[in-house]
Design goal:
Elements: H1 6-22, H2 27-30, H3 40-57, H4 84-102, E1 113-114, H5 121-126, E2 128-129, H6 130-154, H7 165-170
Antiparallel strand pairs: 1-2
Helix pairs in contact: 1-6, 3-4, 3-6
């Protein structure tokens, strides 16, 4: 069985940490905007849209998820969400379409660079490199993990120990919750 490259490990462990950070959050709190900021459901839709756009669409030539590709979940979106179960299903679908791809290449395969026509200026200048795209998606997830953990505390949830799996993966350590 193929093994995951380090960039893929970082992305998958970032997913694990995000999933753990919301595992005990109620459906109502997933949609709650705290002091006008983005709700948890919006944040997960937002980071997952990046994965879908940058990796699934560009490298796998798959169509974007119709829910997550709404401008609402892009940069500058309103931070709100209406249907957590639908968003959760869309996130699962995007990840399910990506997992086999993450297993399909080795380190050399990560060097693939394609022309880029999106809104991220550095990629428009250099092209979108698979290795960098995966790592930036993982970092984006962990950035927003910090936001979620801080907001958890504001609304009365335990903050937990984050980033757990991602932090361990960075140093090659085993992590168990």
């Amino acid at each position: 069985m193929p093994s995951l490259t380090m960039p893929a490990i970082l992305l998958v462990t970032a997913w694990d940490d995000l999933d753990w950070a919301i595992a005990d959050v109620s459906a109502d709190d997933m949609l709650r905007q705290i002091d006008g900021t983005s709700c948890f459901a919006w944040t997960l839709a937002h980071v997952t849209f990046q994965v879908d756009s940058w990796i699934n669409r560009r490298f796998q030539h798959l169509p974007l998820d119709p829910l997550l590709s709404s401008p609402r979940f892009g940069i500058g979106g309103d931070g709100g969400a209406d249907d957590w179960p639908a968003i959760r299903d869309a996130i699962s679908s995007v990840r399910d379409r990506l997992r086999p791809y993450l297993l399909s290449f080795d380190e050399a395969g990560l060097d693939l660079t394609l022309q880029y026509d999106g809104s991220y200026k550095p990629f428009r200048e250099t092209g979108i490199n698979l290795r960098i795209a995966i790592v930036q998606c993982a970092i984006h997830h962990v950035f927003h993990l910090g936001e979620i953990v801080a907001k958890r505390e504001l609304i009365g949830y335990d903050t937990g120990a984050f980033p757990g799996a991602f932090g361990a993966a960075l140093v090659g350590a085993h992590y168990q919750r």
